Structures are given as structure tokens and as C-alpha cells.
Amino acid sequence: MEYLPKEIVKIIEWGLKGDPERVNIYLNKLIEKLMQEGDVDAMKRLRALQEKAASPVTTSAIGYNRQLPVDGESRLELADEEILDPKNYKVILDTNTHSLIEEFIAFVKNVDELEAHGIYLSPSLITYGPPGTGKTQLARYIAGRLGMPLVIARTDALISSFLGSTSKNLRNLFDHVSQRSCILFLDEIDALAKLRDDHQELGELKRVVVSLLQNLDAMSHHTVLLAATNHEHLLDPAIWRRFSFKIPLKVPEEKERKELLKLYFGSFQKGLNFDLFTSLTNTMTGSDIRTLALDAIRDTVINKLDTVNSDRLVWSCIRICLNNNIITENPSSQDLKAIKKLNSTYFTGLKLAEMFGVSPATISRKLGKREANE
């Protein structure tokens, strides 16, 4: 094979900088190209060396400090770090969102090729939407796919009680991630980047926004940045402009809900009517569905049951969808109508009467005879 100098140069460059993760990224690229070109022997030799070496470059030998920076006042670390196995993080997304995520991952993997064509863009992505729609899970999924550590900023440690210290903390964190191969994840970025025309905010917090913007502008195009917010309307417009990808995450649709149910119930799927439970989870987020499944599995294991109790699972769906406000002994007309709306075919008047231990006549009176029979 005619060796590609770009991969070799990058492996040497990041090896000298003491960045084993980045060395492995370019080593994987070289191995992949060797495989594509049919040089199996060379590919196997490199793979064997990679597997044999627990740490391709020892950071201690060259004095590079991987310790996360800390707040000067509290001495708390400014971030947490996670090493992700992509097998443990699967995401269920609609087709359009999935395509955008794949496009972003390809962007990160090809940042050097883009640079070679004079395109210098920092790989950055922000997700936004209601709580529980999978923003943090998605960040972990992306980190796992890219084979890079995920450095999750700790907002409680970043925001200091000392004037000016928050900006200093931000600079220290950005300096840290710029020296290594990793992904910086700013969760709840709105806590750091609120609108500067918000008159209720102190001048110091407005200066934090300026500091954040300056750090974003100074980022290397090798630094991968992910961010998330539940309150996109609070973000300063200048922050939005710093992100190459802006992806909304919504409450899952029917197809995604069924896939999530099957994913989370795993080996406990036997006997479950997924069409029914897909309809009963209509208003749930991915987080709600995960909680629903884990609670049902826990109940199954503790009670030594062979299968998940479907009747209990129906009640769990009702409680989550109605914000746990359902009255099981004497339901109001409003409660009954809300339940029936989840799946009118399943929740007939007779079924509701059975569930609440009342007569069908009581259900008819509360719902109206016509609605009870529909």
C-alpha cells in the first residue's frame, strides 16, 4: 500500500502531544484504509499492536496532566468525565433527526479533510426540547460512536460566588479540553448563556455570556462541543450562531415509542401488547418510557413473576400520563375522559367499571351513556 502521510503525521503529532485517544482515532482511520485497499497483513499487524498496548502513549512520561480543572473557591472539579461504550448507548430517533446526527458524526470524523480544503469549522451541536427527550443520552451516544471521552461541565461548580471567577472557570475548562482529544458537553447551557437584555440578570452574569462567547470563538476546530437546553427561548442569540448544528428533540412519535418500549423491556417482552402500550404512552418522553419499563421489570423480578403484569403496567401508564393525579377509588368524569382518550377501543365502559370496581351504570352516568359505549 502507498502509505497516506496525513494519518502517519497525525499519529506522530498527537503521540508527541501525549494524546492516546487521538492517536487511536487516526490509527483506526489508517487501519480502515488498509482494510479497504486489501492490505490485510499490515492491517492485522497494526490492530494487534493496538490491542496489545493498554496505553499507546503514557501521559506521565511526558508530563501531560489530565486532571480536570477545579474551582478556586470550592475546589470542586469543573466537570465530570465519562468513557462510553457505544454498545451501551442506543438512541431511538425519527428519520430526520437520525440523519442529522449521522451527518454531525461524519463531520467530526472528517474535520481534517475539511481543513485540507480550507474549511475551518468547529464541530459543534446543540440540542433543545422538553426535559426527558434524551439530550444527555444523545451526547453519550455521540461520544461512544466517536470513541472519545465525554467531559460534562458541572454548572454548579462553574458558577462561582466570587465576581469574575465564573469566567475564569470557563476559560480553565476550555483550555483543558483544547489540549486533548475529548468532547465537551455543556448541559443546561442556558444557565451560562441567558439573554443579555434580561433586566433581571446581574451585570456579572451578562459578562459570563461574553466570556462564554469568547471561549467558543477561540475553540480549535479539533475540539468537539455539544450543548443542551430545556429553555431555548432563554439563550442569547449570539450563542445560537456559534453552533454548526441545531437539533430539536421532541416527544417521540408512535414508531419511536414502540421501538423504545421494545428496547427498554428487552428480555421481558413476552406477552406484552406493544400496540396497546404504544398508544398508552402517547404523551410520554423517552425518559418516561424508560422509567415505566424499569419499574415494571423491577416489579416482575421482585415478585418472581414469569412475565410482566400487563394490568399493573396499564395502571402505570395511566398514572404517568395523568401526572399521577388519578383517583383510583372514586374517579371524576374528567379522569375517566382522560383515560378513555388514551385508547377508546381498550377503555370501554365495561373495562373502566372493572378497573375501578364500580357498576357500568356509574361509568355511564359520569361519562354520559353515549361516550361510555363508544
From TrEMBL:
Mind telling me which InterPro entries this protein's record contains?
Answer: 26S_Proteasome_ATPase (IPR050221), AAA+_ATPase (IPR003593), ATPase_AAA_core (IPR003959), ATPase_AAA_CS (IPR003960), P-loop_NTPase (IPR027417)
* Pfam families (UniProt xref): AAA
List the GO molecular function terms.
ATP binding; ATP hydrolysis activity
AAA+ ATPase domain sequence ranges: 121-253
Among SMART domains, the record links this protein to: AAA
Which UniProt keywords are present, listed alphabetically?
Answer: ATP-binding, Nucleotide-binding
**Family as reported in the entry's similarity comment:** Belongs to the AAA ATPase family.
State what protein this is by name.
Answer: AAA+ ATPase domain-containing protein
